[in-house]
Amino acid sequence: MILSLALFFSGGGAAVAAEQVELFDSDAQKVVATFQNTEELQAEAQRLLSSVSGRVLELNPSLDHVMIVKIPLAPPKRLALRSAGIETDIAEMFVVMPKKGKRPPWMILHTKEYETVVVEFSGGVEKLRAQVQLP
Question: Which domain of life is it from (predicted)?
Fold first, then answer.
């Protein structure tokens, strides 16, 4: 499921700096809004990336009833978390925010080497939600 979502969002060979931020609604199964990839969104993405606490331990975290914010990172950002065996450059991030329930938000990260890393983070998503006009 995560791989199919990653393929859905991958847009081709456009330059990362030119790519927009996208808001995907899993219930509607489509991108419901796009935004300019501003310095403010890049700063928020960096803040969230800096709060990564480890890998998601669930075998297959649910992508049902979620909002997902895709943020291309321009330029790619370094993520080093030795306790989780992660040391790589992240090209784009997907912040997965469940609509209901107790599951906290989590991220799907794509590296420059086209690998996928699924992680937990401790940073709040309130500012990001405001930036993409979510209540």
Answer: Bacteria
Q: What is the pTM (predicted TM-score) of this model? A: 0.86
Domain enclosing residue 68, as ranges: 2-131
In which order are the strands placed within the sheet that holds 106-111? 30-35, 21-25, 66-81, 86-98, 106-111, 116-121, 52-55
Number of domains in the chain: 1
Distance CA 44, CA 129 (A): 11
Which of 126, 125, 89, 134 has the alpha carbon at shortest distance from 106?
Answer: 125
Q: How far apart are CA 14 and CA 97, in angstroms?
A: 26
Copy the structure tokens of residue 33: 């809004």
User: Mind listing the pLDDT tens digit for each residue in 39-73?
Assistant: 999 999 999 999 999 999 988 899 999 999 999 99
